[in-house]
Inverse folding.
């Protein structure tokens, strides 16, 4: 699985868009970009994934650069409940051998 | 659906004791996994299973055993607990082809080994 690099922490004002970057310069053609988050002490929660096109669901949007070497997770209107550690993970689809979690980005939403 | 359930929520052991962490899912998922999370770190894979009767080692398998006799259950056994196994343990399940690698996680078991 390709390695990812994320900033250790970020702040965002409540109501603003939170943009979380991820670098995955060694991603290979069959690997997807997945985002999970972990709210304090809880199990991680799936957010979104994509291969090369931008994706949007009810939680977030995922923007992947054309060369696929980096991506950005966007939470359009951050709330206090979005304070969490966000993990960017790169993996080939369908693998049963689990996910490789780095340290992620601790996003703090400020009131 | 209850999703992924784990018991117990908290456990304190003495060095050398054994115990089993329970994990069950009611979503008929083929894949199940165990992770551990140490303070300030991401999750690390201990063991995983692709179906009943089939298990394999992850990144940090030493000191842990697993078995998968049914689709629903995937218990994790600590054979002889050590202080280095103090951690939070998460169980997860997923289904091949379901939103790619979307995994559903349980609430975790917080284990302290004295």
């Amino acid at each position: 699985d390709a390695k990812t690099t994320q900033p250790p922490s970020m702040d965002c004002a409540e109501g603003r868009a939170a943009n979380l970057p991820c670098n995955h310069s060694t991603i290979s053609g069959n690997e997807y970009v997945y985002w999970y988050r972990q709210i304090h002490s809880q199990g991680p929660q799936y957010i979104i994934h994509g291969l090369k096109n931008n994706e949007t669901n009810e939680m977030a949007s995922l923007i992947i650069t054309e060369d696929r070497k980096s991506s950005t997770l966007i939470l359009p209107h951050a709330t206090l409940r979005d304070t969490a550690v966000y993990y960017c993970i790169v993996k080939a689809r369908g693998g049963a051998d689990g996910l490789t979690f780095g340290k992620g980005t601790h996003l703090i939403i400020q009131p | 659906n209850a999703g992924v359930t784990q018991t117990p929520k908290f456990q304190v052991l003495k060095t050398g004791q054994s115990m089993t962490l329970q994990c069950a899912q009611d979503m008929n998922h083929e894949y199940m996994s165990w992770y551990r999370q140490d303070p300030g770190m991401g999750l690390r894979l201990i063991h995983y299973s692709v179906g009943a009767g089939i298990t394999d080692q992850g990144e940090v398998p030493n000191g842990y055993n697993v078995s998968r006799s049914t689709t629903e259950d995937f218990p994790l056994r600590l054979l002889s607990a050590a202080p280095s196994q103090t951690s939070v343990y998460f169980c997860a399940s997923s289904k091949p082809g379901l939103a790619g690698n979307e995994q559903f996680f349980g609430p975790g078991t917080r284990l302290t080994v004295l």
Notes: Chain B has no helices and eleven strands. Chain B has a mean pLDDT of 93. Chain B touches chain A at residues 4, 30-31, 33, 35, 40-45, 48-50, 56, 58-59, 88, 90, 92, 94, 96-97, 99-108 (CB under 8 Å).
